[in-house]
Design brief:
Layout (H helix, E strand, L loop, with lengths): L4 E5 L8 H13 L5 E6 L1 H4 L6 H17 L10 E2 L5 H10 L4 H4 L3 H9 L5 H16 L4 E3 L5 H18 L7 E3 L29 H9 L18 H9 L2 H13 L4 H26 L3 H30 L3
Parallel strand pairs: 1-2, 2-3, 4-5
Helix pairs in contact: 3-12, 4-7, 7-8, 9-12, 10-12
Length: 323
């Protein structure tokens, strides 16, 4: 029996943080036995903001190293970079020609970008179409995403349905997958964890960086003996990711009954994050010593993804009349 296809990517735009890990990267690792997985590095997408070849090349390899360090097995998945599948840009143009501007203007990411900067590039506007091409060209069944990306998967489904209606049944309708409890990973300031907010804890941070980030988390002024609401505490929100069930229950109890100050809570969180990140960080350093192996993994995955995409495009070209 053929496994279902899973696809998801992380842009090469700087270092990943624990929000990236729990929101998407961990899902790919956890499901690599169950699905035929296509994790990829969307470097075409990154071009909307990265305009340095050196940065792009470095960050692309870094994301691969990150994936391998957290347990992704290149023998079980097809890890590739987006630009090794140029067929996605061809499919993007075809999708552009059946998608209206008012439809794309509904995209949350576009509206957010426009609110911050009126002079945005076409790549930002067209982002959902390229993402749809990434997903649909591989006959994807499942897309692990963060909450803010659900709309993009829904748009991919809409585009697939529209194409199928016009040209005949061609594309699967993919589904998104959220992991309960990490739909949005909270940053150190209580907002969604995001590089743009400067509220992240890097996935491979050094111990002193972890300590500094956790100690910077704002709290109220309640003293040790006062009762505290754990669900209103930014520190406790991160405990949910790094504490064992028993430990989390004990911390919650002390919050509610009084007897735990925020300094103690932060100290426990620092230790737990350091214990979690430390082994990953050391594994990453070892993997990074062999860049030739990393490039070999990318090339191998790219070949598989490109061949699948070309087979799909032969069908698409025929259906739209290009052949």
């Amino acid at each position: 029996m053929n496994k279902k296809i899973l696809l998801s990517g992380i842009k090469p735009t700087g270092r990943p943080h624990i929000g990236n890990y729990f929101g998407m990267m961990k899902q790919i690792v956890d499901m690599q036995e169950e699905y035929d997985s296509f994790p990829f590095i969307p470097n075409y997408h990154a071009l909307t903001s990265v305009h340095s070849a050196e940065d792009m090349q470095r960050d692309t390899l870094d994301v691969v190293i990150d994936f391998l360090a957290i347990g992704l097995d290149p023998e079980k998945v097809n890890l590739f970079k987006q630009s090794d599948v140029p067929q996605v840009t061809e499919l993007t143009w075809i999708f552009n020609c059946i998608t209206t501007m008012p439809y794309l203007m509904r995209a949350h990411a576009f509206k957010d970008s426009e609110a911050k900067n009126k002079d945005i590039n076409i790549g930002v506007f067209d982002y959902p179409i390229l993402m749809a091409a990434d997903i649909l060209i591989q006959d994807t069944d499942l897309v692990p995403v963060g909450k803010d990306q659900i709309q993009h998967v829904e748009m991919a489904r809409d585009i697939a349905e529209k194409f199928n209606k016009i040209f005949g049944e061609t594309f699967k309708l993919p589904k998104s997958k959220l992991v309960s409890g990490v739909e949005v990973v909270q940053g150190t300031d209580g907002q969604k964890m995001s590089k743009s907010y400067g509220n992240t804890i890097e996935l491979f941070a050094e111990d002193e960086e972890i300590h500094k980030a956790v100690m910077s988390i704002p709290t109220d002024s309640k003293d040790i003996l006062e009762s505290k609401d754990p669900e209103e505490c930014n520190v406790f929100a991160l405990h949910k990711l790094f504490s064992t069930e028993d430990e989390l229950g004990e911390i919650r109890k002390k919050y509610v009954e009084g007897g735990m100050g925020y300094k103690e809570s932060k100290d426990i969180l620092v230790k737990n994050i350091q214990d979690f990140i430390g082994p990953l960080r050391e594994k990453r350093k070892e993997i990074a010593k062999n860049p030739d192996k990393i490039i070999e993994i990318l090339n191998k995955g790219g070949e598989v993804a490109r061949q699948r995409a070309e087979e799909k495009m032969k069908e698409v070209r025929k259906k739209v009349g290009l052949i």
